[in-house]
Amino acid sequence: MKQEKIIINILDNWSKIDESTREMWTDLIEAAGFYPYLEKEKNKLVFKNTAGEIRKEFHKSDNLGDKYLHEEQKIHNDILKSEKNLIVSAPTSFGKSVLIEEVIASKKYKNIVVIQPTLALLDETRKKLKKYKNDYKIIVRTSQEPSNEKGNLFILTAERVWEYHLKLPKIDFFVIDEFYKLSAKRDDERSDVLNIAFNLLVNKHKSKFYLLGPNIGAISEGFAKKYNAEFVKTRYSLVDNQVIDRSSEEFGERGSKKAKKENALFELLLNLKNEQTIIYCSSPARVRYLSKKFCDYLVKQDIEPKSEELSIIEWIKNNVSDKWGVINCLNYGIGIHDGALQKHITSSFIHYFNDNKLKYLFCTSTIIEGVNTSAKNVVFFDNTKGYKKPIDFFDYSNIKGRSGRMMIHYIGRIFNFNKPPDGEQIIVDIPFFEQNPVRDEVLIHIDEKDVRNKRSKQYTELKKIPSEERELFKNNGVLIEGQKRILEILKRDIHDKYDLLFWHGFPGYYQLEYVLSLAWDNLITEGETTRPMTLPKLITVTHKYGGKENQSIDFLVQNTFQFYKERREECKELKPTVERKLQSMDREDKRRYKKGEEYKKYNFYKKFMPMDDSELFDEAVRDAFQILRHWFHYKVSKWLNVMNELQKYVCEKNNLEPGNYAYYANQVENDFVRKNLSILVEYGVPKSAINKLENKISKDLNEDKVLDEIRNRELIETSELIDYEKEKIRENL
């Protein structure tokens, strides 16, 4: 690795290299297997080595035009072309995803599944692979039907693979990106469904596979042998990550040490103004806080805002609010990226950043999960992930790996404002294979012949569940114990509360309250974070958002802002009472009081007291986007579908007509967009643009033909779309 790093640094400083040595260095670049760089820099390198030229051509891609594979990519590609499966652990800058495209472009397989962990990565993958639409029908939604005329390329999350499993044709090959998420030890609530999808594809479909991820030391013992796979672990990289340590300075999280740390960050970022920098933050709230504070710092330094306004700003003013603080940030070249923002916003911010229209990107753990950026620098500023969970060595390695990018930056730098965590590369357990431990939600999907301990109490209890109910729970794919509890409650309540279960279309408030309360109380997994959402708030905001005049992000923002203002005033009124009570209590009374509703409410919302209206508004915007993305588009819609199947089962067993929540669940998931236009939501088209196109597109048109209709009738030019909306549609045509 030392030799490779020297060569990378030579390439980065080529203009300083003595001309008489350039041919020698070029030969060393070839000897290291850096063929992509030989091609990229062919006009300035001195390459006169005939044998080297032959070796270079040997590394030319078979299917991707003039693209060249580096030495280890070629080795991995040869494994994929053999009968073996491939599992790769390699640095972020290795170029693992190139081999996905190599396989697809080869047309060797008719039906391919690519599983990505996040919607942002799904969107990025879809855009990269849409060039193959003539050979493959590209399927991103479970409502799309597979093609019989040509191949099918399914680009899905694990949840969607399982939702689609009854319609899947025979899958020949599949990919799991960021495959470390299979491990239950990583505490990812979605590891269960990823194991379910993997088990389905490898054991039922007998598909070949390619698993890829970074910084993994080993996998479950015996897995590679059983599934004819080769596990390859490499540190080979065409980028050098250089570490600049700032952790020894007297920084802290409170008081003057906190201010010192923030000022040090802002001074650093200003000095890096000619390069692009990602700043790692622990949460969306920290992203908003630090990006706004940095913007204020630039204003105080008399830095001029950008002269050209980004097109998204007009959209934000029209559809969110002209008071949202992110507008000022964008004007100063500052972007944000987290899991709460709508897909079209995050993809736009990444696009602006990669195009050098933004210099700074304040990110959460979304940076860890492989969003492709061209950042020269990464700042490791916070040392936690989410709510006070420490960043471990694996997370840190992935953050570090975001600095630099193959074919763009030879050198990446990471600035450590915290001491890097100790540790080693992780061992990825694969629960459906290892089964020690394995959750009920995974075990119920494993074929009996593959269950390792059929006498275990866990498996015995699962087998006791009546076969019909077991199949019901299995198809729903969520918490087994929670479903069992809900089913027992429904059996008990079916006659007394039938009116709360029997509804179609849109539910009444009390019907929604009954259904969501059962889901909230029983389907939230242990350790899952719901903050700052509460059950009463979720019921109220879901019901209100269902009203036709309320189905917009603007409504959610204003509603949340008003709610927070009321809580702020309540806390101000409660403060003297709470303080007086605490002063007069002994230790035991204080303990009891703090468990009560009055103190809990005060403690939960007291953070709003020092905020002025502009700060409170930004807090409301952040929360509104989180409600939309996490709760409506994911949790609530999933829960409604599960509750639909459970109530249907109980009603039919009692000779009662069941309700049907499917329409409402679909509406919530797709932001109340008409069914055949919901594919546009999936493709990252803003809802505001879809609303303007709705009356121009027949509701009878198949969703797969919607984009063709927009293109063929030139609806972009004939509709009242603003520039940003036009840009987002053009990206997908």
Question: Would you write up a description of this structure?
Answer:
There is one protein chain. This protein is 49% helix and 10% strand. By secondary structure, the chain is an alpha/beta fold. The strands form 4 sheets. It has a 7-stranded parallel sheet, with helices on both faces. The protein has a 6-stranded parallel sheet with strand order 9-16-13-10-12-11, with helices on both faces. Strands 7-17 form a two-stranded parallel ribbon. Helix 21 (480-493) runs antiparallel to helix 23, helix 25 packs across helix 27 (597-605) and helix 28 runs antiparallel to helix 29 (662-669). It starts with a helix and ends with a helix. The mean pLDDT is 93.
CATH topology of the domain at 240-420: Rossmann fold
Distance between the termini: 43 Å
Category from helices, strands and their pairing: alpha/beta
Task: Give the biggest sheet.
Answer: 7 strands, parallel
